[in-house]
Amino acid sequence: MSTGNQHMSCTGYDVPFHVLQQLAVRAGIEVVGVTTADVFHDVVPQLQRYYAEGRQTGFEHPYSQQRVDPVANLPSAKSIVAIAVPYRIEETMRLRRPKGLRGSVSMYAFGHDYHRVLKKKLQSLVLLLTEYVGREIDYQMGVDTSPLVDRAVAVRAGLGWIGKNGMLITKAYGSWVFLGSLLTDLLIEPQSTVEQLDSCGTCTLCITACPTGALVDPYILDGQRCISYLTQSKGIIPEEYREPIGKRLWGCDVCQNVCPKNNVTLLGSDSSFAPVADLSFPELLHILSLSRRAFMREFGHTATAWRGYYVWRRNAIMALGNLRAKEAIWQLVPFLTDPREEIRAMTAWALSRIAPEIVREIVAKAYSMESDPYVKSEMQWACDDHTSL
Ligand code: B12
Q1: Which keywords are on file for this protein (predicted)?
Q2: Would residue 344 count as lying in a domain?
């Protein structure tokens, strides 16, 4: 391959766009785009509104100049390479829920940790770019953890458009893509024609389908109501969300599943995104039986482990409650005296749904020994007049 310096003299760019595309393919990246390192002025009001309305989840960076200014992240930045990697693959399409007491995990999370997979691809791209330009390059990779707003970067780089569900939707793969970015001091030629942005038209399927009403307006997600957030949050889940969460143990795909733009899309081909172990439809009683160490051994290499095992245990208990799983009663009872409040509270709730008449006395006993006022309130039903249940 010719050296970058030759190209620079002809075009003024260190890397022409068609070369970037070829290198991206070699790095296993399906969709690539480029944008300048200019400030994302148009995102400022959207972000300010997001924080001002308290819709943030705590998983995003606090508001700062770094969220909108690439140069505040990498002072030498000239370009941003934006990538989209599809994670819906053939193997996923063949999945069927097995029988039994099983929960579900969102498609984005049941394979190998996408942070690691995308960072590896970006690392390969860096090596290829370095080789191409024939010098060390300054760069900063971002997959999820970058202060920059990944979707805004992707839009400006021409990867797709934002749907009413807030998702970045690509033409080829729909919204079933992970996003990543590479800030670099290279001047990379932008795509000469960026495709006309598609739009949702009058469709509002995602808004009406959201089980918790988290899409409060077109393009506006209240992160704290989003099931994806709730399943990853720690502590006690507010009662109004417990039933809508259903059997979900991690993440939620409803607003993407109903999206017509996701009907006819190509599939990705990276087998890293195939379900790991039993993670697509985990057996709930198996989850409850795992020690923390065993959980990490089984699921530590997925994107679902970062919040720790207790979030999983709590979610499995909630799912069993929602499934009215009588078979689970005696495995649940010991959690009434678990050291963690949220586990005791969710167990009392689950048992009240599964078989209040069978466990009333046991829960009433737990109530009498309980010292936490909130957990006590979750057990109160066992002491109330049972004709009201
Ligand atoms: C915090 C966070 C969450 C929070 C809050 C989500 C949210 N909407 O902000 C929670 C935990 C709820 C969450 C859920 C999910 N997340 Co998340 N999340 C993030 C994170 C870390 C920060 C997001 C952020 O800053 N939000 C602030 C708001 C204001 O920005 P935004 O919604 O991301 O983007 C808006 C602006 O870009 C603006 N915008 C920009 N240009 C334009 C142009 C036009 C015309 C319009 C109208 C708007 C617009 O509109 C966007 C949509 O509101 C990003 C990674 C990152 N660093 O960006 C991943 C990220 C957004 N999440 C991702 C994923 C996969 C998910 C889930 C699908 C996971 C799941 N299946 O459970 C759900 C989807 C929920 C949904 N419908 O949005 C992907 C999205 C990929 C994609 N195709 O869009 C990202 C980019 C991670 C990644 N690297 O791939 N997530």
Answers
A1: 4Fe-4S, Cytoplasm, Iron, Iron-sulfur, Metal-binding, Oxidoreductase, Queuosine biosynthesis, tRNA processing
A2: no
